Amino acid sequence: MTQQHDDAFLADWAVHSRFGAVPGTNGVDRQAASAADGEQRAWFAELLESHGFTVHRDRIGNQFGLLELVPGAPYVLTGSHMDSQPTAGRFDGAYGVMASAHACIRAAEELRAAGETPRHNLAVVNWFNEEGSRFKPSMMGSNVFTGKSELEEALATRDPRGVTVREALDALGERGDADVFAAGGRELASYAEIHVQQGRSMEEEGVTIGLVNATWAAHKFDFVVRGEQAHSGSTLMADRRDALLGAARLVVAARELVDEFEPGQLHTACGELNVYPNSPVVVASEVRLLLDLRSPSAEVIAAAHASLMRTIERVQREDRVEIGIVAEHSWDQNPYAEAGVELAREVAESLGLAHDRVMTVAGHDSTNMKDVVPTVMLFVPSVNGVSHNLDEHTRDEDLLAGVAHLTGVIRRLAAG
Ligand code: HGY
Ligand code: MN
Ligand code: MN
Ligand code: MN
């Protein structure tokens, strides 16, 4: 039966990898509520329905497949996200959603074959807009689901062209009109998520299953730097208020911040920067940029935050620009419940899969879910740790080991 299941997963996985595929590469572009996102959602709904799930979408576009095994019982929910960064890998998020669907299908078949009646039902989720590329911030669907963000505020979020989340979801017919759990009258018992590591330690150490036991802290600042538009040639240097110079100094300062701490204690980057008017012979009057700080230590992230604020004061004074914080999105450094780590360890032992505890540096929807229900977070290795990159890759044998392991975890959670 395992070979049949593995073949079935790889067949569905090959089909799914074609949605939003970037020609001539291994990667994809299927940002939240894009046409490609709409196509993959429609295909996924049909796949779920063909296996007996009923498909729902909630008011922020989270897509759910419900497999009712015990009428009225709470649900074990498993899933991740299918949306991607603009040019990125086909594994980030999507693997977890596809693995979750197949793990639920297998777990239900095994329970039936064993004549076992579980205590819980099973459900799969494809969270809306985990990446936060087109619509900020990231993890939008699970932020709303767990009450960390307000629904109306999320629906009113605009992309760079001014399109709102509400309009984009409605254009695809992907905005539901009710909650699926909680106010939807269904109870959640637990949550499980499997994801590619997006780091290289597991591959280097020969670990197949990562038992995620804690998350790094993250603090993302959406800054605006305002100066004064001027002729880049004739304007005297002393008269300039150059917003792009101020922004550039912030980008460099974020990198220099890393060297104020022990190696491996702080990661920083600026991945998004927009200049206005962005014209050849013009001193920029406004720049928007997003700085991303990550640390395994709450103290380091707090110290880095304070140091960055001091740099902002200095740049404002020296470059005579105003620097404002448009938005912030952060989560603390904290653990995943030890009970979930132990359950996942036991399943890995029983399957003979190399496993180890690992912290996650990237945020996931489980970062939110672990604060509301008992949560199990799992990793499979990333080749060379590459992610948010067209060449992101995980080997088939690791994909399949992850599905088998998640099936075991779901059976344990369903037994209650
Ligand atoms: O922000 C993160 O770490 C995730 O990729 N959304
Ligand atoms: Mn089967
Ligand atoms: Mn992800
Ligand atoms: Mn990602």
From TrEMBL:
Top-rank taxon, per record: Bacteria
Protein's name in the database: M20 family metallo-hydrolase
CDD domains (alphabetical): M20_bAS
Family statement: Belongs to the peptidase M20 family.
Record-linked InterPro entries: Amidase_Cbmase, Bact_exopeptidase_dim_dom, Peptidase_M20
Organism field: Leucobacter allii
Keywords: Hydrolase
